[in-house]
TrEMBL record:
Composition-biased stretches (Polar residues): 89-99
Upper classification of the organism: Eukaryota, Eukaryota incertae sedis
The protein's name in its UniProt record: DEAD-box helicase OB fold domain-containing protein
InterPro entries (UniProt xref): DEAD-box_helicase_OB_fold (IPR011709)
Biological source species: Palpitomonas bilix
DEAD-box helicase OB fold domain: residues covered: 121-230
Region entry Disordered, spans: 40-113
UniProt xrefs under Pfam families: OB_NTP_bind
Top-rank taxon: Eukaryota
């Protein structure tokens, strides 16, 4: 199955995947400039990647998306790359040594050792998005879930008491009732009280207002992550 066919079959956007890959390349360049990534001696030479190296990179870059297909996205760029080959060759010549070294895959692999650790990834995500955090709790009827975004003071109170009334008995709250956007994978999850999760916190990228206030691009995070990295 070709990459384009796979994307169509599973309702994925090939261009979006390409955009994600370009963003990853840009992030690596920035991290190198800031000194967080150290290229190998081969990558430090500043030379461009050979055609065979680029081909190997293209064939393997999406293999981890669906292991059971044995690299189902292998060859994903075949027709699209042929159409863009001229432009990419020009961009390759204009790119910086850091960009060229990334495209050849020449940086220490230990920088990716926590890539499969969702706890670490979510902690990094929270530290970048904070204070864009929301909390979910069951409504008094026990059948629906209420999601709220709130101030730092209210967030600290919830972390101490897990959403219960504080010691002074105060019920005054500075919160904003929000809803998980229907396009989010978490939308159907919070709609089902049977799936009510232990980790009732969300980090979100944006809050949008239409008929209601919605959270988009949100991820479930643990209270420990909020306490440590918020």
């Amino acid at each position: 199955m070709s990459g384009s066919s796979f994307c169509r079959a599973y309702f994925m956007s090939f261009q979006t995947l390409k955009s994600i890959e370009r963003m990853r390349e840009e992030f690596v360049v920035v991290l190198k400039k800031l000194g967080f990534l150290r290229a190998t001696s081969k990558g430090d030479s500043g030379g461009g990647s050979s055609k065979s190296e680029r081909n190997r990179k293209d064939e393997s870059k999406f293999d981890d998306v669906e292991g059971s297909e044995g690299g189902i996205l292998e060859g994903m760029e075949e027709s699209e790359e042929r159409q863009q080959e001229g432009n990419e060759a020009q961009n390759e010549n204009r790119s910086s040594p850091a960009q060229r070294s990334y495209k050849g895959g020449r940086y220490d692999p230990h920088y990716d050792e926590h890539a499969e650790n969702s706890g670490v990834v979510k902690a990094v995500l929270l530290s970048a998005l904070y204070p864009q955090v929301a909390h979910a709790q069951l409504e008094p009827n026990g059948t629906t879930v209420r999601v709220e975004a709130f101030s730092d003071k209210e967030r600290a109170r919830l972390l101490r008491n897990d959403g219960e009334i504080d010691a002074e008995g105060s019920t005054e709250r500075s919160v904003d009732r929000v809803f998980i956007h229907p396009s989010s994978l978490n939308h159907s999850y919070v709609k089902d009280p049977d799936n009510f999760f232990t980790n009732r916190w969300f980090a979100y990228h944006e809050k949008v207002r239409s008929s209601q206030t919605f959270l988009r691009d949100c991820s479930v995070i643990s209270p420990e992550t909020v306490a440590l990295f918020g």
